[in-house]
Automatic annotation (TrEMBL):
GO terms for biological process: methylation. The keyword DNA-binding does not apply. It comes from Piprites chloris. This is EFMT1 methyltransferase. Keywords: Cytoplasm, Methyltransferase, Transferase. SUPFAM superfamilies: S-adenosyl-L-methionine-dependent methyltransferases (SSF53335). Its main location: cytoplasm. The gene is Eef1akmt1. One of its GO terms (cellular component) is cytoplasm. It comes from the Eukaryota.
């Protein structure tokens, strides 16, 4: 039979397709290999439609270590919309603290019982076993730079924390952060894996190591 009518891919398209499949195989191979760390930053890719921007490894490490010190021995840490800090805390593999992640993105449910579905639009719609004022420190990174988002996230933070708050958000939110959470800007400047258009800062309400 004459197969001249069967559409043929151009050599350029074919090469690009082969490269894509090769990259996909390598990525899947890495995930199944012993070396793959399911808690490493980037193991779950950013979804820009959900306003997700992961911290750099250095920033996540700095914030995680600050949280451990602030929480104290046997402390409980809550990461609200701050999954890369949660991942870094798990990498630290500390035996003297516990941590949970409150996150809208259900892909993070791979982390089991430590994952709590969270929608900032319903700030107090939390599981019954998440008791008020049961966390030594709450780290939060509201997904949007709006007062509405910050105000609603602040309700969650104030419900969860025993007192200590570590907030990461835009520099333009300084006034609102002080108004809703009583936090002050630190000298430490957080960095992301990708450069963001808006200047980002950290805010605390306690004597931290970020100054």
């Amino acid at each position: 039979e004459d197969d001249d009518d069967i559409p043929q891919l151009s050599s350029h398209t074919l090469a690009a397709l082969q490269e894509f499949y090769l990259e996909q195989q390598q990525r899947e191979g890495m995930k199944t290999s012993q070396e793959f760390n399911r808690y490493s930053i980037g193991s779950i890719e950013e979804d820009w439609q959900l306003s997700q921007f992961w911290y750099s490894n250095e920033t996540a490490s700095c914030l995680a270590k600050e949280a451990v010190v602030a929480a104290g021995e046997g402390g409980r840490i809550a990461c609200v919309s701050a999954p890369s800090v949660y991942q870094k805390l798990k990498e630290l593999d500390g035996k003297d603290f516990s941590v949970c992640i409150l996150e809208y993105d259900r892909r993070f449910s791979v982390y089991g019982e430590e994952f709590i579905f969270y929608d900032y639009n319903q700030p107090l719609n939390l599981p019954e076993n998440l008791l008020p004022h049961s966390f030594d420190i709450v780290i939060a990174d509201p997904p949007y730079l709006s007062e509405e988002c910050l105000q609603k996230t602040a309700e969650t933070i104030k419900y969860l924390t025993k007192g200590k708050i570590l907030l990461c958000t835009g520099a333009i939110m300084e006034e609102q952060a002080a108004k809703h959470l009583g936090v002050k800007m630190c000298k430490f400047i957080p960095k992301h894996l990708r450069n963001l258009a808006n200047e980002f800062r950290c805010y605390v309400n306690y004597a931290s190591g970020l100054d």
